[in-house]
Amino acid sequence: MLTLRLKKKEERRVLRGHPWIFSNELQEVPKAEPGSLVDVHDASGGFVGRGYFNPQSLIAVRILTRKREEINREFLRRRIERARELRRTLGFGDSFRAVYSEGDGLPGLIVDKYASTLVVQSLTAGMDSLREEVLAALTEVYEPAAVVLRNDTSGRQLEGLALEKTVVRGEVTGPVEFEEEGIRFRVDVLEGQKTGFFFDQRENRLALRSLVKGRRTLDCFCYVGAWALAAAKAGASEVIGIDASEKAVALAQENASLNGLAATFKRIDAFEALRDYEKQGERFGCIVLDPPAFVKSRAKVREALKGYKEINLRALRLLDAGSFLVTCSCSHHVDQELFREMLIDASHAAGRQVRLLEMRSQSRDHPMLLAAPETRYLKCAILQAE
Q1: d(C-alpha 369, C-alpha 378), whole Å
Q2: DSSP 371
Q3: Catalytic residues
Q4: Is 0.85 surpassed by the pTM of this model?
Q5: Domain ranges for the chain
């Protein structure tokens, strides 16, 4: 196995628990097959950890273990079982994020479980090199009826990997059905966003239920209707969901019918809709803003903040006094403090005094490494407008 050495004084962050080693922290970046397993030593030769290596990536090594142990099917099975036991302990039922990359000690691997269907994303060359062992371990732990590979994320291209979508076990002939907190959903695991659904907002949607009873509620960027249906189930007086995707709106309407819940879904761009509602003098008792990531790189943060400010100030102008705004960002380049500062700017521009009731994050089936702030990406602020 190839051994890599860190430069002097570059080991502290990694020894404290961060799983990434950057190429400029290594004494030498040797030629090797992307995804090769490597041992990492500090400058004096002490063992730091074992992981996989990609000489083409800025993140040159992702640590899998701090022990000298074999990285094989048994190792992967133990990690997947440990992740499953955490979800069971936390009461996540039969549908959840089953593996959250670094948060579950398997960097580069995402697995979402929709009842008996697993949707798998391999984001790195290292995890791709372990594909067969990963699939075997997942099958052993979960015995799924179907397994879908959704290896179509842009990040794979940065790792020099091809994009692909395929069913590798069982059969998927249409939307997959599952339940979250008493609401049934049908999602498209082959063509939908990410793996078809966003489990990371599960506990935030539960928090919404205490805010919306008897209130007219607007769900912007509604996708398949998860926030909107949570509001309808909690007794909102009227629920409107808007999204620019025709397929998403159709699935949202289907999910409302599936549950016998009253909600109206419209295909319209959220920025346009918020401007139109303001011109029409519309008012709401609760608005949810859960947009897709506005920023894919640190260089685009300023541009993204303009977009976040625009939708938040317009939403604040539509709220009745004492009403609530649930506003989110899944852009990890926009950290919590930047997000908070943007909300201050937006409330000032909207002419509203705002109280912060909660600043929440991702659901606990997306566990965060204490030593790796990059694993915390989701911000969900619950605000009340005076």
Answers
A1: 14
A2: T
A3: 330
A4: yes
A5: 2-65, 73-173, 188-385
